[in-house]
Amino acid sequence: MSAATRLSRSSGVALALVVAAALGSVAAIAAQYERAPTFTAREVLPSSLLNSRYYKVQNSVGVENYQYVFNVDTQWGTFRIVGTTLLRVRAREMQAATKLAEIGGAETLVDAAHDRNRARHGVDPARGLSVLERADRVFGV
């Protein structure tokens, strides 16, 4: 390998290192000024989703990958929920889980639905559904 080729390659490597360092410092400077926006829960949610007897959405709402990030306090602890759609799903699940606990648990619900539907139709139309999906059919939650 000639001296000119070695000098050309080492110059290329040095240039790549300088460009990488410059881009890294630009990103660090931009991070100081460009922060992800934050919102209040009232700004981004309808009042029906802010709280219920099953949960309460904390006031500060962040953004991650173009979706709102909610911290939700429940009787089971605090959960981080990403996205309004998932918050709606979790709200329904919390309501269903609480109702199941009130009537004696999932087994009672599944047995009652199974017996009722078998008596009516001779088959269990809820077979293969999760407990929460069965609760939705029975209670309309």
Instruction: Write down the Rg.
Output: 27 Å
Q: Number of folding domains?
A: 2
Q: How many beta-strand elements?
A: 5
Shape: elongated
Strand content: 15-25%
Q: Helix/strand/pairing class, anyone?
A: alpha+beta
Helix percentage range: 55-70%
Arithmetic mean of pLDDT = 75
Uncertain residue segments: 3-7
Instruction: Work out the helix count.
Output: 6
Q: What are the secondary-structure elements, in order, as H or E?
A: HEHHEEEEHHH
- Biggest β-sheet description: 5 strands, antiparallel
The CA-CA distance between the termini, in Å, is 76 Å
Please supply descriptive tags for the structure shown above.
141 residues, 2 domains, five-stranded antiparallel sheet, 5 strands, 60% helix, disordered N terminus
Structure description:
This protein has 2 domains: 1-35; 37-139, no CATH class. Strand 4 and strand 5 (77-82) form a beta hairpin. Helices cover 60% and strands 17% of the residues. The protein has 141 residues and is of the alpha+beta class.
Describe the protein's topology:
Blueprint: H1 3-33, E1 39-40, H2 41-44, H3 47-50, E2 55-57, E3 60-64, E4 67-74, E5 77-82, H4 84-103, H5 106-121, H6 131-139
Helix pairs in contact: 4-6, 5-6
